[in-house]
């Protein structure tokens, strides 16, 4: 008696394994996508280098986090995204120098 998998079972089984592997690989991306406000993300995309902190707060609202190093002109403002991930904007001397849509925990 020969126990060989037939192509009609092997192909769907292979596709299911590929689908499960893909979802597992991108699980963090999918979780962020499902828990992110599209409206807030669109506003965040409008942040550009050189804007002042008051202009950024006008676009995004009051930040939930503020992080700064002593004796440094750089600081971060953060808005919560999901769990320990935040939107963050880095400032130097009151002007935007970078923005991060996946900043770690404050």
TrEMBL record:
<keyword id="KW-1133">Transmembrane helix</keyword>
<dbReference type="InterPro" id="IPR037873">
    <property type="entry name" value="BamE-like"/>
</dbReference>
<protein>
    <recommendedName>
        <fullName>Outer membrane protein assembly factor BamE</fullName>
    </recommendedName>
</protein>
<keyword id="KW-0732">Signal</keyword>
<feature type="transmembrane region" description="Helical">
    <location>
        <begin position="9"/>
        <end position="26"/>
    </location>
</feature>
<keyword id="KW-0472">Membrane</keyword>
<keyword id="KW-0812">Transmembrane</keyword>
